[in-house]
Model the fold of this input.
Amino acid sequence: MCAGWAGCHDGDELLALRLAVFSGQISPETAQSVVNYRSPVPLFDSGAEAAIHGVRDIDIPDSAALRAIEKIRRVRGDISETA
Done:
């Protein structure tokens, strides 16, 4: 469960949360915990804002991102560089 997702949406209105309980993927208690969750840090106002932020620098990653990418490539053999 993503804390950002839980924190920026009104949990009582989340169809995915209700379906997860209905299908047995999560317990009613877990769903209630999601509904009651309050993030200790500021969150984006919407998933769309978070997504825009998440891909903001994707075409020109900074040095920290490039180091993280290289570390992942070293660990995972199934990732290849694409143009």
Summary: The chain has one domain: 3-75. The longest helix spans residues 63-75. The helical segments are 3-8, 15-22, 28-36, 47-55, 63-75.
